[in-house]
C-alpha cells in the first residue's frame, strides 16, 4: 500500500516507519511474566473498533436496571435487565438492551455495536458476538464459553473469530458475578487487560448492589471488555444453569 502523503526517503537516507502504522498491543502497567510463564499471544490492537482503544486507562461505571412487570394477583416478574455504561463524567458510553435471547450493545447515539447471542444446545454455555445487529457467521467477532462444566467461580475462555481450532484461548475471564468481581487476562498469561469491582460507596453498600466499576488497561478495546462483562452476567457463577 502506498502512502501518498508521506515524504519519500532518498536512496542514502535511513528507512523510517510511517507514524500512523498500527503497533502491536502493549500492556505497560503489567508486571512481566517469568520465563516459565506461558508466552503472551500476539493480539490485534482493535477487536471491535479503533475508537474504543485509548492510550490511557479507561474507567467505566456500570449500572444494572431491572424492568419488572406484575399482573394483578400475581408475583412480579423481571422481564428485562438493561445495563447503562458511563464514563468518569457520567456521560453515557454504551447501553445494553435485552431483546429476547439476544443482548444488544449500542453507543451513546443508539448505534448498534455488538449483538450477543447464546448458542443453544451446548454443554459449556457458549455465547457468540457479532458486529452490529447481525447474527451472520461472516460477522462473528468472538465466542465465549465456560472453561469447564462444573465451576464454583466462573472461568470463561474467549476465542476470536480467526481462532477456529480453539486450542488456546485469546482471552480468559476469571471471577464471580455475584461478587461483582472479575479479571480479564490476555490468553493463558498473567497479563491483566481489565478488572471489574464493586463501586464501594455508602449508597452502593446499602441499596445498590448492581452498580460497579470496570477499569480497562491502555490500548485495550473497552467495547470488547463491556461485551465480556455482559456475557459474564448471563453465565453467572457455579454449575451450568445456576444463578
TrEMBL record:
Gene3D superfamilies: LURP1-related (2.40.160.200). Transmembrane segments: none annotated. It holds the Pfam family LOR. Belongs to the LOR family. It comes from the Eukaryota. This is Putative tubby-like domain-containing protein.
Amino acid at each position: 500500500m502506498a502512502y501518498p502523503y508521506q515524504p519519500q526517503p532518498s536512496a542514502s537516507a535511513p528507512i523510517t516507519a510511517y507514524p500512523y502504522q498500527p503497533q502491536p498491543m502493549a500492556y505497560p502497567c503489567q508486571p512481566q511474566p517469568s520465563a516459565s510463564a506461558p508466552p503472551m499471544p500476539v493480539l490485534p490492537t482493535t477487536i471491535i473498533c479503533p475508537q474504543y482503544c485509548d492510550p490511557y486507562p479507561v474507567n467505566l461505571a456500570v449500572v444494572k436496571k431491572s424492568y419488572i412487570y406484575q399482573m394483578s394477583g400475581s408475583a412480579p416478574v423481571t422481564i428485562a435487565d438493561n445495563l447503562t455504561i458511563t464514563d468518569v463524567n457520567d456521560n453515557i458510553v454504551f447501553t445494553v438492551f435485552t431483546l429476547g435471547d439476544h443482548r444488544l450493545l449500542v453507543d451513546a447515539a443508539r448505534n448498534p455495536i455488538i449483538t450477543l447471542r447464546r448458542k443453544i444446545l451446548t454443554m459449556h454455555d457458549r455465547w457468540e458476538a457479532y458486529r452490529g445487529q447481525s447474527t451472520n457467521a461472516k460477522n462473528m467477532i468472538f465466542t465465549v464459553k465456560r472453561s469447564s462444566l462444573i465451576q464454583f467461580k466462573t472461568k470463561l475462555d474467549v476465542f476470536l473469530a480467526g481462532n477456529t481450532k480453539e486450542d488456546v484461548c485469546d482471552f480468559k475471564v476469571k471471577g464471580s458475578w455475584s461478587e461483582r468481581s472479575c479479571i480479564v487476562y490476555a490468553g493463558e498469561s498473567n497479563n491483566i487487560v481489565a478488572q471489574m469491582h464493586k463501586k464501594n460507596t455508602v449508597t452502593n453498600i446499602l441499596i445498590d448492589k448492581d452498580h460497579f466499576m470496570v477499569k480497562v488497561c491502555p490500548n485495550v478495546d473497552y467495547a470488547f471488555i463491556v461485551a465480556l462483562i455482559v456475557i459474564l452476567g448471563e453465565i453467572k457463577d457455579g454449575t451450568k444453569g445456576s444463578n
